[in-house]
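Subject: for your reference before the review

Hello V.,

The reviewers asked for a structural picture of the protein, and I figured it would be easier to keep everything in one thread rather than splitting it across files. Below is the amino acid sequence we used in the manuscript, unchanged from the supplementary table.
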Amino acid sequence: MTTTESPSPLLRPRKKSQSLSQEVVNAISELITNGRLKPGDKLPTESEIMSTQGVSRTVVREAISRLQAANLVETRHGIGTFVLEPPKTGNIHIDPATITTMKDLLALLELRISLETETAGLAAARRSDAQLQEIRLALDALRDNLAQGKDTIDADFRFHSQIANATANRYFIEIISHLGNGVIPRKRLDTAQLARDQQASYLDRVQREHEDIYEAIARRDTEAARAAMRNHLTNSRERLRRAHEAAESGVVGSTTENSVAQ
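And here is what came back from the structure prediction:
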């Protein structure tokens, strides 16, 4: 295994676009893709990345977390963060770190509609009482965080992930887990602002859609669970599509990282 002796010169100053953490992800991903950072190489230290990219430690750690979720790097505590061998996935590879544009998010939502519609149906048919309780806990956490004005992204992803777990199908579980919480549109974009919608009422509707999914799974109604999930994700796609059109028409300004609406 080799290490990069002076890695910091590899990183070019970041461009002012997208979220800060995503810019750092893109910069490091590019170095890995073009071979300047190879499997086994050690990434620059947090301090070096902070200095080169002009960002805070929090931003750097968020970027490293995203790279870990994409299976591009691993962190060995007390040693550093190292580039991993690329995953062996044949000709299909969905890299969450590359889902950066509105077009990417719309395409991913189309995939999620197909995937998670069936996930909800299987969960309704196969879930255990314990699994239903985990889905409920995730939904309650999302509701409580919303009421307190806290971040809802992790709870939202946990809700969808627990539904996948209830399918008892490891492939559904692995795909949802691989995509990670970066697939939640508000992780990247302020869709409520773009759609000129009130954020509170916007998320209230999203919460009601989640409740419909949960209730169908709770009563083991497979068709209703499929319909509720399809409705939720189709609505998300439509909200995002309208936001995309508004952004392209110049009606509204730039997107922000700290959004609260899906």
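For the response letter, the relevant points are probably these. Confidence is low (pLDDT under 50) at residues 1-7, 14-18, 191-197, 252-262. The chain is about 60% helix and 5% strand.

Happy to draft the paragraph if you're swamped.

O.
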